[in-house]
Amino acid sequence: MTVPLVASKLPLPLVRRGKVREVYEVDSDTLLLVASDRVSAFDVVLREPVAHKGAVLTQLSAFWFRRLAAVMPSHFLSADADEIVERVPALEPFRAALTGRAMLARRTTPVPFECVVRGYITGSAWAEYRESGTLAGEALPAGLVESARLDPAIFSPATKAEQGHDENVTFAHVVSALGRALAEQLKQASLALYEAGRGYARPVRVRLGARRAPARDRRDPHARLVALLAGGPLRAGTRAAELRQAATA
To answer: Is 127 strand, coil or helix?
Structure first.
């Protein structure tokens, strides 16, 4: 019987422990992210972990980082335990525990916004639209129904809250906080990533909505992708079910 990993304890400096992941420092430019089997729902960590959940989360992310590398570079370096142990020999005794669930990544500085692309209107977007016909205060077409497709998809940023729920904000708010050049870069990159993901998923009859979290590389002025298409960042529904777009250590 597989024992779920509730929390990792590695011989590296612990940078932070999130709701799901532990983040360790490998060196000044590199981090190790370890996804536990803890389950977070609506900002609450549930009592019961789910075995292998962390490995599934990590490998989904690794798949999409590789798949979308041509669209936008990311912080991703490796999710292969053998490669990670070769890079960090002190982790050799933990190889089995790290297999599937550990990711080596560049250290970046996240921007303080979630770069959300909505391809379908659901979740918090549907709640606001149903009440006022808007999304983050900006008008949407009349007559939409829940989970209706938005074509073209809409860039709908949100604040990145350390505690509590994220809050939808306007693009003008992002421009005011970050400057127009970076805000436009994030918007165009997010839309391009979403369309690339949707194009890949469409032939297998899966509809996607995605939240992205670009970051600044500390040595590179361009943004990098640091979170997408896994667990929290993405939920996907088949056409046979009610189609919902994603809402998001």
So the answer is: helix
Tell me the two tokens of residue 127: 């709640």
CA 225/CA 214 separation, integer angstroms: 4
The fourth-level CATH superfamily of domain 14-106 is Phosphorylase Kinase; domain 1 (3.30.200.20)
Unique residue bearing structure tokens 């509590």:
164
Please state, in angstroms and rounded to a whole number, the distance separating the CA atoms of residues 21 and 57: 10
3-class SS of residue 177? helix
pLDDT at residue 248 is higher than 80: no
Please answer whether residues 88 and 12 qualify as being in contact, where contact means their C-beta atoms are separated by less than 8 angstroms. yes
d(CA 142, CA 122): 15
| Dist CA 195 CA 187 (whole Å) | 12
Residue 158's identity, in one-letter code, is A
CATH architecture of 110-238: 2-Layer Sandwich (3.30)
pLDDT, average across residues 55-79: 92
Q: Classify the phi-psi angles of 138: left when phi > 0, otherwise alpha if psi is within -120 to 50, otherwise beta.
A: beta
CA–CA separation, 2 vs 54, rounded Å?
A: 13
What share of the chain has pLDDT > 90, as a percent? 51
Phi, psi (rounded to 5 degrees) for 145: -115, 160
Residue 234: per-residue pLDDT: 34
Q: Is the pLDDT of residue 119 over 70?
A: yes
Number of H helices, E strands in the chain: 6, 17
Separation between Cα atoms, residue 213 and residue 197, nearest integer Å: 15
CA distance 133 to 139: 6
